[in-house]
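Handover notes (outgoing to incoming on-call)

Open items:
1. Allantoate amidohydrolase: sequence verified, structure written out, both below. Nothing else pending on this one.
2. Nothing else urgent.
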Amino acid sequence: MTIVTTDLGHTLLQRLDEAAQHSEPGPGVTRLFCSEQHRGVCDVISGWMRRAGLTPELDASGNLVGRCARAKAGEKTLIMGSHQDTVVEGGKYDGMLGVALPLLALEALQEAGVTLPYGVEVVAFGDEEGTRFQSTLIGSRALAGTFDASSLEAKDADGISLAKALQDFGGEPENIPALARQPDSVLGFVEVHIEQGPVLERRDHALGIVTALTGIERHRLTVSGKAGHAGTTPMPGRRDALVGAAEMILEADSVLNATEDFVGVVGKLDVRPNAVNVIPSEVTFTLELRSPRAEVRAQGRDAILAACRRLAAARELEVSIEQTYSAEAVDCAPWLIEALGDACRASGQPAEPLFSGAGHDGLAMCDLTDIGMLFVRCRDGLSHHPGEAINAADGEAATRALMQFLADLPSRVEISS
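Allantoate amidohydrolase structure tokens:
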């Protein structure tokens, strides 16, 4: 396949810069689900979709969906896309790269006179980060048919429910179940995303093929001791909840560092009474654990929690442990791993495999269809940060690899309805 379109990388970066303008004031990009910034970026993406030959439509769950004529006619369809929402003060590439890049690839194929003999759908998922309502993967679960209607009751910091926000945005919460795609109508789901880690940079590779999306679990631990006057209570015998929690956090860090394919973080900590001269009586902290291997995560979790109980007993503290979230690891489909790898190599790029340490919309879409994922190198492995960055050459490489994949897809799957 010879594509004469040039300077795709710089065009891609310009479009991502344009999308990044739709952000709350402050460092980086802050674009929350069903916000005015979300509304503004949908207008930008709609323009990209039309240039790629797709018809844009806001669906009932807040996704912006672009479909080609074949997809609208009900032919078997490849779904591509990623999320448009961000964390607070995030970067301009996390999520949005996977919206802008496939649209640019489709536009370039169209300009080159390449007609794809199957349906194509590109989705800018409304909510993946869960920043506003703490209820993640709303849009992808809607398409996969696994949407939980109880999540509509979730409220943001201002007390606005998800259902109300969707209604005000133009969505139709009551019609979300009707968005579920039929598995036999979908060829697969492919997402392009920045790596959000340092592996590709260390390999000096622009692209990587994802083999699996990591399993994730979250826990809330509450350590209870006894408050007292910081100046008059002797050090021996103190039941200091913060000291106990600190020991537990250090033990978690030790287990994580000693275990391959296992990462985690204590990202939030609340201290009571949080006074300068009072011994802390209670500490609540979060513990998030990730691994693509369920057995590694289970063994590591058991070791960490057993240590927390042991450390609590040694200081005459109490510890309660509540699991707040769990999602098992998801394997990418072998045929999509092979197809994306072949497309990379055909376009002159190495394509070594690696797993994703982050969750993505594929965690939901796998309930509908086979999933595949292409990673793009990001500077310093940085993500969820204003300094998030890719370069034009890597953007060009990823765009051309996806174009190759799209052109070659009919040789790999049955596309007739």
